[in-house]
């Protein structure tokens, strides 16, 4: 392959070299001379060893190589490569060996980085692009202890330059490169501490240049091949947006992260992604479908956070001024279109689970996610949803609600926890009435926190009250409705009460740790007993056998436990004991009321 003429910068680099008596430089010059002679004489047997010797000299230990020496060695190599008389076979041999040591030296201080880039660029321009892609990808996987981000940036810049030189089989080459890039970025970002976060910005900027190279490829392609490559570029952008957003937990680079996200979002618009498609996740699904051939399964794994990225683009647009200006009216238009369409609204609601459930993103991002969620879910949503008999979102809704629960539990401030609770209530109230109790039951059965269980039981109580009022209204207008059996939700609600008052593991509940959920369960039971006392005989929720079981198996054992605990606590008389007594008092009050109601019902048996 014919070599390009060296650039002006490269000439300056070579001209800036000064003679040195360093033994290391002397060895390097001798090794380069041996390599050149081996190829000129046709001694291919010793050429590989000569190239390896050059690489070894360029790989000194950190203690042996100062920044000044590193710069001198890199200048020497660049001068050798740039000579018009350099043998192409020698250059090809060095391209196999030098990217790793050159990038490591380039990660040092001084002018090392620029010279290392010039060397890698030279290899990219003068050697086989396909070979260079493999060589540079292999170099990416090499762990570097010192200034690893600078090492990766040099190699990523080399890959970006190489990609622009690919003449055919573009998609196949991109599928080789992107998994390697995303793998090492994810691995290296997880290792950086807060003091080196600005290095991550350089890393994302280098990955952005990879995207620029792929975008240039897209411009040269047509039809389905262009669509496929655009899908890849879009997913690559979303994966990087997710990675960038994971760094926003560090307040010192939050604004910078928003600027980087803006640059990646421009790829999405180029690839045909829309805010409507990002809000609902449909654009991500469409892109992965285009690539979901059997041979691409492993390739798609490198875009595992693409859905996160789609939701994050929307969140960043709402919280970052530059993103909002770039989106213009399209963002507001997409929000309105989602709000006016029930199915799309639920698709958008469920998209927020990716961000809210993850530990990777900042509380600021999660707070803005909740704001958007509350904007989408209004009172009209429940009415619209109930009009749709076929509602296939139960699994996704459960995951979304669990994600909101995580924010309620872990958020660092009270206001955000309240915001999460508001979102939880609104989403639950928007679920079709035929599935609402199923969702609540699943949440309670999977709850690991007594205080959260208590909150959910209170929501069940609110739903029971609402359903009871609705039934009264129906019965008031049509007396014939009262002839039916107990409400369809009755058995589920009683199961939930029993789950708390008579736990599956046996015995009454542990009041010291679970007083909140016990109180909520008793309040729910009291409401059921009151509602049941108003209904007709044929519509009773608690039949004779159930009433006796509630009395003898739920309430009386609990009363005995409370009496025993109170007796113990009163003997102690300390501050902790008094606090526990205060917690038990409302439980005892509601318990006694439930017992009174049950005993009244039992008189009529």
From TrEMBL:
It comes from the Eukaryota. Residues 1-24, 468-488 are annotated as: Disordered. GO terms for molecular function: ubiquitin-protein transferase inhibitor activity. SUPFAM superfamilies: ARM repeat. Residues 7-23 have a biased composition (Low complexity). InterPro entries: ARM-type_fold, Glomulin/ALF4, YAP-bd/ALF4/Glomulin. This is Aberrant root formation protein 4. It comes from Triticum urartu.
